[in-house]
Each structure stands twice: as structure tokens, then as C-alpha cells.
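Hypothesis: this fold can be encoded by more than one sequence.
Test: take the C-alpha cells below, design a sequence, compare later.
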């Protein structure tokens, strides 16, 4: 899979993809993440990419021309299954959406900044708008990194245990059950006996019961959606 991210602050995206699982995914050749610096398409001597909004009001807007030139240049090189704009008013990023996007081949993500992007980009290029929550950040770089991480870890071969991602929270509509590791007894805090007995049928039943209990207590809305 290849993912391109358009941004005016490429330095904000350097670290998330140079460590841990995302780094290994790229080293294995399973994921390509390319950061596209919008400043390369900026206008004039100062490489301008933003301007005041028509009609007045606070906040600068990312200009249509630099974004259009950047997007059109990338579209000439390859087809993108989705052109995604990270925005608070997009559809909420949830596990089913990450699952669907992980089956695509090429994705293009636009990281907004300032007051947002010229509406004409949304009308003529964007095919999907995604939000990571009902709050506002300084820009779309961190949301873009979140989206790439959620997608990238699902690619076959990325995680060491092929079944690991299948048992993450939300994959079955439930939160994950509690997990434990050694030692069995720490300060008198003990691991549940069922996990030590080796009866995998009982262990799976316990985990499912705990997942239901945790979901009912912490996120009952997930059960109501069923």
C-alpha cells in the first residue's frame, strides 16, 4: 500500500513513521508513506499557500491553486482509491472504516491547516472526509498520522502475530478484555486462575465475558448499536 500525505508542515510527520510498527511495515515493503510538502507548490517569492478568506472573518485559508497543482501532479502519476481530507466535520474514524481502507492500494491524505482548505478542493478532488473526534487541533498532521497508523497495522504481515489485529478492541464491536503477564503474584495482586489453567475453551469464554462486562461498563453505546 502507498499513502501520500499533503502538508505544509512535513516535520510534524517525521517521527510517527520512523519508529516501531510503522517503521517495520515500511522496511518490509508492505507500506510506503510519502510526505508531500505543499510549500513546493507555493506561489510567489514567499511560496504562499494561504490567504485571507473572502467575506472577512478570522483565520487564514489554504489556497486552491497550490493544493490543486499538488493533487493534480500526484494524480498524473497514479490512481488513488480515495482522496481523504482530515477535518472535524468528516465521518468519525472507527475500526470498520480503518478495515475498509486497509484493503485499498493507494490513498492520498490532505492535512488541513489554519482555518481549513478552499471549499473548491473539497468539491472537486476530495472523495472522503475523516475526523478522529469531535474536537479541533492545530492542523491535520496528527489526525493523518493516526489514520495511517490505524490502517497500516492491519496490512497482512505487518504485525508479528498474524491474528493480533483481529482481536483488537472494536474488531468484534467490543472493548478488549483485561490482559496480564508475569509475575503471577505481585504485591498480592494475582492473575485470574482461569488464565493459568491451560483450558483454552474456558479462557476464551472468560475473555468474551470480560469484554462484554468492560464494554457494558465503559462504552454501553457499542452494545446499543448492535
Amino acid at each position: 500500500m502507498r499513502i501520500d500525505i499533503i502538508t505544509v508542515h512535513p516535520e510534524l510527520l517525521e517521527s510517527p513513521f520512523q519508529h516501531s510498527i510503522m517503521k517495520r511495515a515500511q522496511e518490509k515493503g508492505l507500506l510506503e508513506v510519502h510526505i508531500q510538502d505543499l510549500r513546493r507548490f507555493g506561489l510567489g517569492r514567499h511560496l504562499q499557500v494561504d490567504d485571507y478568506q473572502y467575506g472577512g472573518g478570522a483565520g487564514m485559508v489554504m489556497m486552491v491553486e497550490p493544493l490543486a497543482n499538488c493533487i493534480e501532479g500526484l494524480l498524473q502519476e497514479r490512481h488513488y482509491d480515495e482522496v481523504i481530507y482530515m477535518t472535524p466535520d468528516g465521518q468519525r474514524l472507527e475500526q470498520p472504516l480503518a478495515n475498509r481502507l486497509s484493503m485499498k492500494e493507494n490513498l492520498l491524505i490532505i492535512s488541513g491547516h489554519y482555518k481549513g482548505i478552499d471549499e473548491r478542493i473539497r468539491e472537486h478532488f476530495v472523495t472522503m472526509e475523516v475526523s478522529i473526534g469531535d474536537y479541533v487541533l492545530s492542523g491535520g498532521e496528527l489526525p493523518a498520522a493516526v489514520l495511517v497508523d490505524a490502517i497500516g497495522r492491519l496490512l497482512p504481515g505487518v504485525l508479528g502475530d498474524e491474528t493480533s489485529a483481529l482481536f483488537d478492541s472494536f474488531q468484534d464491536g467490543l472493548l478488549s478484555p483485561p490482559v496480564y503477564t508475569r509475575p503471577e503474584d505481585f504485591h498480592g495482586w494475582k492473575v485470574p486462575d482461569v488464565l493459568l489453567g491451560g483450558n483454552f475453551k474456558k479462557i476464551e469464554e472468560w475473555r468474551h465475558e470480560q469484554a462484554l462486562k468492560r464494554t457494558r461498563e465503559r462504552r454501553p453505546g457499542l452494545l446499543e448499536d448492535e
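The longest strand covers residues 82-92. DSSP finds seven helices and nine strands in the chain.
Hypothesis status: open.
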